[in-house]
Amino acid sequence: MKTKLQQFKESYFLYSFRRDMVAMASFVVLVFFLLIAFAAPWISPMNPYDSANIDIMNSEIPPMWMDGGSKEFPLGTDNQGRDMLSTMFYGLRTSIIIGLGAVAIQASIGIVLGLMAGYLGGKTDAVLMRLADIQFSFPYLMVAIFMSAIFQVVFGAGSFEQLAIPLLTIIIGLSNWPMFARTIRASVMGEKNKEYVEAARVIGLPQRIIMFRHILPNALTSVMVISTIQVANAVMSEAALSFLGLGMPVTKPSLGSLIRSGQEYFFSGSWWITVLPGLWLVLFILVINLLGDWLRDVLNPKLYKG
What we know:
The chain crosses the membrane at residues 21-43, 96-117, 138-157, 163-184, 215-236, 271-292. It contains 14 helices and no strands.
């Protein structure tokens, strides 16, 4: 009898991963990003949240390979005198936390509503999918901007700054759940008439047990793929909201707020304040999307080799 580990070692999934150099390189880079993001408090040269470590006299120091650069600040400093390397580590950490949290909210709402719509059908399906269609009719970033503006009015700018991370997580999570709902609905509609579901109905299992214990595990393949892509979308949404001034405050760096804080200094010569976080963000999004594309190809039943 083969163990789970032996089955995984012999699986097509691992075989395909080992043969795809792009997927392997993307995975290594993604793991690197995650490690430095969550180890930021221990590996960063300074804490950009601690005003005692910040000296405004150190503002706009160029990277160390440029004239006027300093080895103390390898990637230079921003307009507030914060070390760019440290702010990028902390900013990536903030963006990842918001992205993962937002996708968890999207998935929770979308999976439940998609299961109900696909399995129950009829009026339930019609109502839930019309709600999804209404939300899809607006660009999700517009919905996020609208919700962010409302939250700032309700809580006030000062309180919003203190609650920025959980509020942005909720805002981005609520703005894009229909993607999960539609994907799960399509998978459930393909599963609900299969023999194992009919057998569960015959023995009298409750609908919620059939949906969550029997149908959902067989529909999770599509969720894995879409979750990967949605993490990238959520991070980009946070960056866009912060760039527009509706996301993370400048005093609490995220990749979006870092790009925004440096835009007015770009043409004055301090290009690194915007460009370096921008490249950091692009590379992070790229490796996630490459992994998502590989997952989609490998987990697509039509491409499965056995």
